[in-house]
Amino acid sequence: MNIEMIRAAQKRLEGHARRTPLLSSPFLDEVAGRRLFLKAENLQHTGSFKFRGGWSALSALDDAQRKAGVIAFSSGNHAQGVALAARAHGSTAVIVMPSNAPQTKIDATRALGAEVVLYDRATEDRKAIRQALAAERGLTLIEPFDNAQVIAGQGTTGLEIADQARDAGITSAEVLVCCGGGGFTSGIALALEAEAPDMRVRPVEPKNFDDVARSLRSGQREINAAMSGSICDAIISPQPGEITFPILQRLCGPGIIVTDDECLHAMAYAFARLKLVLEPGGAAALAGALFRSDEIKGEAVICTASGGNVDAPMFQRALSEYGDQI
Amino acid sequence: MNIEMIRAAQKRLEGHARRTPLLSSPFLDEVAGRRLFLKAENLQHTGSFKFRGGWSALSALDDAQRKAGVIAFSSGNHAQGVALAARAHGSTAVIVMPSNAPQTKIDATRALGAEVVLYDRATEDRKAIRQALAAERGLTLIEPFDNAQVIAGQGTTGLEIADQARDAGITSAEVLVCCGGGGFTSGIALALEAEAPDMRVRPVEPKNFDDVARSLRSGQREINAAMSGSICDAIISPQPGEITFPILQRLCGPGIIVTDDECLHAMAYAFARLKLVLEPGGAAALAGALFRSDEIKGEAVICTASGGNVDAPMFQRALSEYGDQI
Q: Same domain for A77 and A92?
């Protein structure tokens, strides 16, 4: 896993993935106490950065693999990214999703042409389901983060951040990334190591699901006690990946922890000040920049907005609770 | 008023105004029955295209005028655009606003450093207020649409649309523009006449405030019967402008009329499918593309999203009423 793979993925993604804008607002600068920039990956195709990894992986397969089809497991964003990338490559996708994933994500994955297989997160073993399906049909597994081509795709976001920040006169900053298994975080960190070495990547996780922050402290891959109990479904993973953790360890940290309520509050800020729809997990980095400014150093902070696939009732909840505190 | 003024404005805006993205979604294509693109001017600085006109006008003043300051009247979007442009040019702005404008717009205008003067739309004459203030303090009036430099600034949106559509393989399309006094519409029409002559501009207005559509039919500047009674506050003007109407007559039409409910429904679609926050008036063109497809010709439609400055309760209303019909 290296910067050349990210550069190669960028070439394969050109003209297919969106170059999402790097946005800012004087109102958010004031709350954050420094210049704040937001990389709006909620505006990526399928509403999250996951399309980059999906496209990168599908475009790296050989013809026989594409013809046989792919399989992925995901609560929704990786699902949609792989589904659309598979359709665009003339392949087919089977997506294994937890039955309690947001309805909007399940519906959109089906509408993008994928076959969705639901399972009960509490009682069923997704790994067994997946392996049976993969073996039975000869499907290629597209891992959500522990896959070099997926990480390479997510890393293209980092190449864009370096470029766009430079255009805005910023070469030194902390870069806050919404972090689940670490594919997005490690990809961005590798890209910035090469293109903007004065930037430091900080993984941001929801309270009680801080496996990456704890792993960075202990030096080994820690496991979360639970896999549900946060509204940040997009960035809940059991533990850092085998491929991602060494990269996170070498380049990232320390981790930043935010609460679900802070994510809802950040969603309301993004609504009012940036005119963007973020999902709770996609607002974690912005929440870190706004509400953990004492843990951040320097005059500029760049946050990723990893996704915007949120059901209407959850968005209404953010506006009801925080619409008058923005 | 000509294309050269728009090109000159584009040079003055470079590095200051955002080049907003042209977005699309396969889900919206399906509803519209053709390829649909949306120019996301809600992501412009201050949350609407009005920043372009404000910057264009301020940057065209001489030093003495900038030092004396400017005055504008606006329900909110022009207000914020002029306020931020004035502050960035080291000038000062007095903004005359109706007291029933959305609170978010009044607050943001003040926060951007402008002096806000409120008046009662029903009982007070804004023209008299404005003229008294302008005369007393030697302020330069920045008209919201009947001002050549303002139109030139808004027209830069059209130059970008032509470029971005060409990159997407589109040279022929109907271009739907949210239309109040016609500054945005006429500026875009002039730009496209020069850069994309196979595109036709269609003004979109709210029901009962269709002065432009009626004027295009009758050949003279018709007046709206009322100035309130629609949630589309951003695009309610008494009649087409003196400068804008001849341009609209030569290049645009016929007009498209949408209801307030259709604008709310379009806001819910933009939320779910594009992850964008639109205000009711800013969603009018999208509503036209989605719900008036029988009045539109050709295989592609491009709609402008003119702004996203909406209070939380109005956005929640859109999601409550239409969140399950998207």
A: yes
Where are any strands of DSSP class E within B131-271?
Answer: 140-141, 173-178, 199-206, 256-258
- pLDDT value for A136: 83
- ipTM score of complex: 0.95
Which of B264, B275, B309 best tests the A interface by mutation, with the highest count of A CBs <10 A? B275
Amino acid making up residue B98: P
Across the interface, whether the CB atoms of A275 and B21 are under 8 A apart is answered no
Kindly state whether residues A109 and A254 are assigned to the same domain: no
Q: Considering only the beta carbons, identify the residue of A47, A108, A275 that sits closest to B277.
A: A275
Q: Is there a single domain that holds both residue B136 and residue B160?
A: no
- DSSP-derived letter for residue A100 is T
Specify whether A39 is located in the same domain as A58. no
Structural domain span for residue A9: 3-49+148-322
Query: Quick check: pTM over 0.80?
Result: yes
Distance (Å, rounded) from C-alpha B252 to C-alpha B257?
14
Chain A residues with CB-CB distance to B21 below 8 A: 18, 20-21, 43
Closest CA to A253 of A308, A196, A186: A186
Number of separate domains in chain A:
2
For B279, nearest residue in chain A (alpha carbons): A275
Read off the pLDDT of residues B293-312 as tens digits, 9 standing for 90 and up.
999 999 999 999 999 999 99
Residue of A269, A275, A279 to mutate for B, most B C-beta atoms under 10 A: A275
